[in-house]
Amino acid sequence: MEKVSTPHVHADQRGCVVCIGVFDGVHRGHQSLLALARGQADEIGVPLVAMTFDPHPMAVVGPRRAPSSLATLAHRIDLLKMAGADAVEVLEFDEVTAAMEPQEFIHRILVDRLHVRAVVVGQDFRFGHRAAGTFETLEHEGARHGFRALAAPLVGDGEHRWSSSQARRLLEAGDVEAAAKALGRPYRLDGTVVHGDHRGRELGFPTANLAWRGDPTVPADGVYAGWLATGLEVLPAAVSVGTNPQFDGRERRVEAYAIGRDDLELYDHEIGVSFVARIRGQRRFADVGELVARMGVDVEEARRALAAVGVVGDASRG
User: Fold this and answer.
1) 167 is a domain residue
2) Residue 272 sits in a domain of what CATH number?
3) Is residue 163 part of a domain?
4) pLDDT digits (tens, 9 = 90+) for 219-253
5) Alpha-carbon span 53 to 63, nearest angstrom
6) Are 109 and 191 in a shared domain?
């Protein structure tokens, strides 16, 4: 049922502090939760384990309501470690996991498997069959099994609470700058470069056509300033999202032009595309000449937007 993505830290009889959540996107609210857990782990002198679930629980218990993702599992693991976790425990969420009673989850996973010393969750955390487990359940069982339970308050910017739902809404509206404030970094899509129509090279702006994995949140159609991370370098980019209405396209694509570069050979390579600022919406022009002229303007606007911020967040991590 469970799968482990990192070394078996739970075999250490000193135990650990466990911070539990889906952690989709590891936004600033998650980072605050992990900071509290990090403090507990340091105080006790044990490792901090971030426990996450894959796939998203809603994909099992309510597939039609399952949200799009804000990070691949590999990216999520990297982000959790960057936020302070010593290791990440990934539990496969399936029908068996969904049917587990809260007390069974605590006994089998937290106590027997991880030798938990303290558990840190958000104050609205629910777990177990039919989401019957609450923070109070953890407190009660902690008294029985000898671990402490802590609930982190919900946090935000004073106007909105930081959440994965908020970040998705902002991205779907094309407000990548506000989404970056909620996430604590520019939003990033990961995937493989595949062949497209090769039209960008013909127009003087060769692009990397991103084939993403899974069901990620894709920003609203339009043109953005962003970063193209190849694994070797991070390059300023102008990024197009949409169906390319100029040429009657139907397939929604994400294409990134590395500004000033026509020497890149990225087919079949893994890349990350980060979104920094929205330049404009997608539109159809009177003719190809007008499109090319506007693309030149887009590139210059992207260059200026990126120069103003520099490489920020985790863009360099690809």
Assistant:
1) no
2) 2.40.30.30
3) no
4) 999 999 999 999 889 999 999 999 887 676 678 99
5) 15
6) no
| Domain C-terminal end among 131, 152, 173 | 152
pLDDT at 261: 92
Radius of gyration of the chain (CA): 22
Q: Which tens digits make up the pLDDT trace of 13-27?
A: 689 999 999 999 999
Q: Is residue 164 part of a domain?
A: no
133 plus 63 within the same structural domain: yes
- 88 located within any domain: yes
What's the rounded Cα separation, in Å, for the pair 203 and 250? 20
At 214 the pLDDT is 87
**Whether residue 198 is found in the same domain as residue 115:** no
Domains identified in the chain, total number? 2
Answer yes or no: do 87 and 148 share one domain.
Answer: yes
Residue 52 has pLDDT above 80, yes or no: yes
Counting every residue, how long is the chain?
Answer: 318
Task: Please tell me whether residues 237 and 102 are part of one structural domain.
Answer: no
The pLDDT tens digits of the residues spanning 116-167 come to 999 999 999 999 999 999 999 999 999 999 999 999 988 988 888 999 999 9
Residue 218: pLDDT above 50? yes
Q: What is the pLDDT of residue 12?
A: 62
Residue range(s) defining the domain that contains residue 111: 9-152
